UniProtKB/TrEMBL annotation:
This is DAGKc domain-containing protein. One of its GO terms (molecular function) is ATP binding. SUPFAM superfamilies: NAD kinase/diacylglycerol kinase-like (SSF111331). GO terms for cellular component: cytoplasm; membrane. The lineage of its organism: Eukaryota, Viridiplantae, Streptophyta, Embryophyta, Tracheophyta. GO terms for biological process: sphingosine biosynthetic process. Pfam families: DAGK_cat (PF00781), YegS_C (PF19279). Residues 129-268 form the DAGKc domain. InterPro entries: ATP-NAD_kinase_N, Diacylglycerol_kinase_cat_dom, Lipid_Phosphate_FormReg, NAD/diacylglycerol_kinase_sf, YegS/DAGK_C. It comes from the Eukaryota. PANTHER family: ACYLGLYCEROL KINASE, MITOCHONDRIAL, SPHINGOSINE KINASE. Keywords: ATP-binding, Kinase, Nucleotide-binding, Transferase.
Amino acid sequence: MGDHRATPTAKVRVNGAPAEATLFVCAEPAGARGPELRWRRDGGGAAECVLSLDEDVLGVEIWGKDQVVVKAFVAADAARSSVSCATGGGGRRRRRRDFVFEIAAGDGEDAAAAAAWVDTMRNCLDSLGRPKRLFILVNPFGGKKCARKIYEAEIRPLFEAAGVNVTMQETQYQGHAQEMASSLDLSQTSVQIHSTRVVNGILQRIDWEEAIKLPIGVVPAGTGNGMAKSLMHYAGHRQSLDVCTILQGAKKFFSVLHMTWGLVADIDIESEKYRWMGSARFDFYALVRIMNLRKYYGSIRFVPAPGYESYGYPVKQVDNCTVECQEQNGKFVCSYQGPLVEFQGSNWRSLDGPFVSVWINNVPWAAESIMAAPGAKFSDGYMDAIIVRDCPKADLLALLMKMSDGSHVKSPYVTYLKVRCFRLSPGQLVENPKRGGIIDVDGEVISRGEGTYGKSQNQDVMGYGPSIQMTVHQSLATVYCPR
């Protein structure tokens, strides 16, 4: 049991208005409030105002002799028992705001009292474990190509107010973030902020075991923003995260969001030409694809999680997929090779196509308005599979509309299960045997079949046709969403 220590109530002026303020600096027992700054303006019936040092306060400094400036990022919070005066409007919308406290300690002690308040609040903020150095990668091509503008107008001022040392660099081409992450000086940063593609760069490092401890931050400035949505909806702003290893022969790739093939991949990638529409491009192109529905031959194999052993059909032993260490300068060196799990002898199951869609998820939300896998957890050691093999067009449209709340998984046309290992053997389009499909991992194409929209198949990470295997490493990474 801890106490909730407080500074003595002080006579102050808050942004020029007389008030009485108290600074609570030590958390009470579990479930109670944390460090807070509370005040009530003079006038009897005035509501009590509150700033949470953890959630609302960015930094604090002293002006002159007796003015304490609290730099805040504030929003309405109806869940609190007290009314917050640190509100920037309804809902979850926040804005920067400074609160100036003029201390009136009396007997010429104003300066000493102000300095004590500043020291106390800084010590509280330091104890929260916030990062002091950030390496930020800005993708100028994502979403509506507004990432640099968003960073300069909304993100950079917050870090400046919090006294964070920031190094920002724009990515210049596809794969650039991965390259920079693979050579990043770990001693110069405590958090990386970018899309989740930096995981591939980190895990290609020889010192990956140390590098993967670095939290990977996400600021939602793109089109989908599934990771940020999942974090804020389910887990809070910091969370351990499973990482999926994708193998095809000697080729290797890593995923933290999802792998898709069929309808969802076609919508995600082929709608790129409508990027100017923002997130509406997905709704528009989904309708296009449903009206001209495609089905793909192929097969899947999986090792079910406990409780899902009845799905699919039993198959014979499936060999393990492995990647060996590489030889460099006469020495064998190893980047991350994937989880040390053997699936030989496991209870493999199978489902054969044709398929409308195969979607393997690591987190619940695939985009801000798409709860693809409502049962997915950040660090449970499993992947969530959403499989559609046949569905009338009218029912498929209704199914997609239910993705906003995850109720689509209740459809009789959807097979939803958790798996420990997943193997996809993609086939050709039923309506056109000369055309293959697209395999999309975290919004990036890793494989294209013949005749698909976009770049040359030879430039992809993996080939189309041979089996692609996914395995999951529980809680390998840490993901962070600044709030």
